[in-house]
Design brief:
25% helix, disordered C terminus, 7-stranded mixed β-sheet, two-stranded antiparallel sheet, 4 helices, 9 strands
C-alpha cells in the first residue's frame, strides 16, 4: 500500500514543483507560468504528496490540467527523479481521469515530444492514441509535437422505442 495522496495545488507547493520541473525538463516552465495556471478558472492542478517518517509530507509529482467543456488537456506532468518507476504518474493520471469522468469529461488531450520516449510509452499504456502532429511546435528545438488523445467515455445517445412506451438509453 502506498502512502501517497493527491491534493489540489496551492502556492506553498510552488517551490517543490519548481525544483521537480528543473530536474525534469531541459526547457522548464518558470514561476510565472505556474502562477498563471494557479489563477486560471478552468485549471485542475494536483500534487502527489508522500508521507515522510516525521509525519510531514513532500511533493513528489504534479499535474497541470485544463478543462474545456467535456475535454481535459494535460499541460504538464512530472515526477521527481527519485520517485520515478514507482507508478506514480500512472496513478496520478488515472486519478485525474476518474475525477474528470465524474464531471462529464469524455476525452483527454496532450502534446508530447516524440523524443520523450518514456512519456510516449506511458501515454500509450494508458490508452492514448496519436491523432496528429504539430510541426515545429517546440520553439527551442523545432521538434514536432505528437498530438495524443484518450477517450474516457462514449457519449450516450437517447432514442425512443415505441413498443413498450419506455425510454431506452443506448451507448
Amino acid at each position: 500500500m502506498n502512502k501517497w495522496r493527491i491534493a489540489s495545488i496551492d502556492r506553498t507547493d510552488l517551490e517543490p514543483i519548481l525544483a521537480i520541473e528543473q530536474l525534469s525538463f531541459q526547457w522548464p516552465w518558470g514561476r510565472i507560468s505556474f502562477e498563471g495556471e494557479l489563477s486560471c478558472q478552468n485549471a485542475h492542478n494536483y500534487v502527489v504528496k508522500s508521507a515522510k517518517a516525521d509525519n510531514t509530507s513532500q511533493v513528489i509529482a504534479y499535474a497541470f490540467i485544463r478543462r474545456a467543456v467535456d475535454e481535459l488537456h494535460i499541460l504538464k506532468i512530472a515526477v521527481t527523479p527519485a520517485w520515478r518507476g514507482h507508478g506514480i504518474a500512472t496513478w496520478l493520471l488515472n486519478s485525474c481521469f476518474t475525477m474528470g469522468t465524474r464531471q462529464g469529461v469524455r476525452s483527454v488531450h496532450l502534446e508530447v515530444r516524440p523524443s520523450n520516449i518514456p512519456a510516449v510509452e506511458l501515454y500509450e499504456r494508458l490508452g492514448f492514441q496519436e491523432i496528429g502532429r504539430r510541426p515545429n511546435y517546440y520553439a527551442d528545438s523545432n521538434e514536432d509535437a505528437l498530438l495524443m488523445m484518450k477517450v474516457l467515455a462514449k457519449p450516450v445517445t437517447h432514442t425512443r422505442r415505441h413498443k413498450k412506451k419506455e425510454l431506452v438509453l443506448e451507448r
